[in-house]
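note to self: dont lose this again. the chain is below, predicted strucutre after it. 496 aa total, dont forget to put it in the shared folder this time
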Amino acid sequence: MRPKLTEVATIVDILRLKQQGLSKNAVAKRLGISRDTVRKYWNCVQLETGSYGPRPKLIDPYEEYITRRLNEYPELSAHQLYDEIKEMGFEGSERTVRRHVAAIRPHKQREYKPFETLPGEQAQVDWGHFGTIVVEGATYKLYAFVFTLCWSRVSYVEFIIRGDTATFLSCLQRALKYVGGVPREIVFDNAKVVVSERVGKIVRFNENLLHFALACGFTPKACWTYDAESKGKVESVVKYVRRSFFYGRKFNDLADLNRQAINWCDHKANTRVHGTTGAIPWQRLNDERNYLRPLSVSAQPFVLEDRQATRTSLISVEGNQYSVPSRWARKRVRFRRYESHLELLDGQEVVDTIWLEHGRGKRIIRDEHYPAHEQARQRRTAANPLQAKFEGLAPEAAAYLQGLSRSRVGGLRNQMEKIIALAETHSPAAVSWAMQRALEYGAFGYGTLKGILIRYEAAPDSLPDIVDVTTEPLPTELNMGVEKRDLSYYGALGVT
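---
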């Protein structure tokens, strides 16, 4: 019985790889067949006689050339070899060449050497992406900052939504405070907050990281690009956080998530027996702290930045716009950027503080940044003593006056004078509450305000709580009550 053509091809491949010195297991793995099949044909000297012989392959005439080229240049790609033999007359596909090269090129196996550091010698830092989170209506990418002391295996985990340098350095500072000291070196990945430029082994670190490292007393190191094993200890912690802490966890907000993360570090991650060391990280930390440098930096880390202000004195930070003093309109504004706020600088002097908002697309404007407008408003108010006196009744008085001016309840001046007199007989808190209530319901005028005050002072519990009332939209067609009349009506009036 003669073998099938597919069987013939398999036999030929087995014998060819056997001649190359591969073992039965290696041949089976290379060809993707069972070891029993390899054993069956291993000692086959020749195929059954007959008209069927080994089917020639298009690549057979080029095997010697390909082998010679790979011996000379082991890193040659299959694509390049395909181009070369195609010019020599090869009519097969590039896929055929790739399969042939894969079969004869020796597979490289990476060598991993166990690596352990001395106490206090090294820590590793890494980031992990954990989906998204909604903060104040805006969707952010959620990251975990993970810090691990290599000897004790104590880990610190913190979730963040901002990847700026100030936030990164603040996380690092909190991690060093958590472990109670500073190791001699810290290994990072190649993120922009760490490495500003890299050419081979030459690394130019982020200037702000270098300043922080100098202040703390550690040496920064960057792992090899695309080499997770160079910081494998913290890489395994990121996986552990994902599997043991984050998966299926419920939390209310970012602050709640971080509270849970610290609790998990305190009572789970750092109290279990570590699989490699065979010891509890917290217990090993007691010994490692003897080798850590004390953390001398207590001030909050910051980064020097600048922005071009618009003609309306606005700068953009993390998707939001913030007003700055109007004298900086269309100019570069220099500031210290902290994790939570900005300090505006005039030379070396801090002239103002701006607190950063969560979310995006917000515009945060402070009136004091526009003194000319504020002075003009004050002059207008001072020119009218009655207005000034009225607006001084309560924080809500200015807004209440605007609503009063749009109502048609008596003369405006008369209403203002009567309300001022009314306010003199009631406490400022009561007046403020009454105006707030009137604003909520759009009810203006002396009589309405007096009724609210009387009822409030007589039986405050009888009044419903102030609620956020949504104003109904005006109808597109107003019913004015127009009466349809017969044409004779106009005749009776003498209209022709």
